[in-house]
Amino acid sequence: MPRGSIELTNARKDEIINACATLYETMSFKDITIKEIGGLTSCKRAAIYNYFQTKEEIFLALLQKEYELWADELNSIVDGHETMTADEIAQMLAHSLEKRQRMLKLFSMNHFDMEAESRIENLTEFKAAYGKPINAVEKCFKKFCPDMSGKDRQDFIYSFFPFIYGIYPYTIVTDKQRRAMEAANVNYVYLSIYDIAYTCAKKLLGGVTE
What does the pLDDT profile of the chain (210 residues) look like in tens digits? Predict the structure, then answer.
């Protein structure tokens, strides 16, 4: 890690992460290089390695940032309400996800490879962020669904969170993919991020008192 203030180090990291996010809007993971990321920052390419040793570490940091933003939103909503029904909780989760298309796109990547190519300290920071939205959902259930058992809360989390990792490819398709589905005679109904997330959350919360 280069010498300097914590503020400067964090600012450089954010600059690199934001450059990666900008490229990811129009490019795929495999096409993005450290050189291209550096081209959108004030850092020279070699300097990036002072902060991130691999491209995978940069993407993991980007996903970490997305997790933290999502958790902040969930906590803000929970803290701002006195009561919420099961249907309102399902709506809240669905609306929060439809605003996080980048996060859902990152979910569709191979996390195993990203984590394998990251140093343990970076992976530990990421796992802490990974747990924040889970904790926010736990807090939501404890506040608004006090009769919901610990097992039911766990069952929801172990069903809903793996489920959302597959939302992006089911809702965001290219014209080429759409044409291929039509040519293959696959009768597929395209749903929005909100629709598919709400339906899943609502079904999982079916036993919770309205």
Answer: 455 688 888 999 999 999 999 999 999 999 999 999 999 998 877 889 999 999 999 999 999 999 999 999 999 999 999 999 999 999 999 999 999 999 999 999 988 889 999 999 999 999 999 999 999 999 999 999 999 999 999 999 999 999 999 999 999 988 999 999 999 998 888 899 999 999 999 999 996 655
Dist CA 111 CA 66 (whole Å): 14
3-state secondary structure of 53: coil
CA distance 141 to 138: 5
Measured distance between the N- and C-terminal CA atoms of the chain, rounded to whole angstroms: 52
Could you tell me which of 113, 108, 114 has the C-alpha nearest to residue 57?
114
Residue 117 per-residue DSSP state: T
Which tokens belong to 61?
A: 């940091």
- Is the Cβ–Cβ distance between 103 and 66 less than 8 Å? yes
Residues 6+ apart with CB under 8 A from 205: 86, 87, 89, 90, 156
Q: Does residue 32 come out as left (phi exceeding 0), alpha (psi in the -120 to 50 range) or beta?
A: beta
Q: What angle do CA 123, 125, 127 make, to 5 degrees?
A: 70
Is 111 in contact with 67 (CB distance < 8 Å)? no
Query: In the structure, how many helices (H) and strands (E) does the chain have?
Result: 12, 0
